[in-house]
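Annex B.
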Amino acid sequence: MNCTTVTVVIAMLVMVMFVHSIENEDPCFENPCNNGGTCTVIESGFSCMCSSGFTGTLCDVEQCPKPRTMKCDDGVLTTGDNLSCMEGYTRIVYATSMCLNQPIEDTMCIPGDINVATLRFYGSSKYLFVRTFTNVHDAKNSCSRVCGSLVEINNEEENTFLATTAEELQISSLTIGLEHNGEEFVWSSGNTTDAYSNWDSAENFESTCVYLVSGNTKWNTLDCIGLSQSVCEISSNGFNMMRRSPRIIKLSRKARESQNDKEKPKRLQNGTEENSKPLQNDKENPKRLQNDKES
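C-type lectin domain-containing protein: predicted structure tokens.
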């Protein structure tokens, strides 16, 4: 055995002894913490910081999450563990999970005068389908009390989601947040229907409020004091009052101007178009209602 070989053997022995020493002195060397837990050396040995959903000395015991409650308080939407509902509110279950063979129910506080409601999620918003029949004024009030507003529909996908869900819940029609302001139909946020609309081809625009028919996904007008079921949209930040940017609105108008006359929104004045030709209601995007019929 030459000197080089002896040197190599000695170095290997030293390394083995060093590793063995570390294993004996560092209780976290092989991380005794389970399920992604982090080991920390302490004076008495080690401590495990467990990842979410686990507990125990070695993070080997499954920990069930606490039930979550969503509530609207002074216009602020809050979600926390076991929050209490304010007086006059009741709870609905919007999500259920199982943990250790036990159901974990997440709930939402809703006004007590809403007898039946279902919360669904789509995109970045939450939608509360209210199956209590109310007029439009009361529907708006109910939505504001859950930090929302009557839904604003911005595209075909959202419209289809609402219609499909309503049909699943056996709701024939839903009041939405579109209303005629004397000049044109606008959403609660102030947005127009330039970007998207889905009017029924047979609609005559004799009323000022609007509902969505679940069966055919089309929009029709209704008397604002009539009773209907409704859907509230609750954005991630509470009240759903976000406006589209002016640039987006401008582009949508420019796109419409490139379409043929039948697809352009028409202004309705005294039963005739602005060019004095006989009235032809625009079924895609009406901008004005007819004036009250002359007595």
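The chain has four helices and 16 strands. The longest strand covers residues 89-99. Further annotation is deferred to the next reporting cycle.
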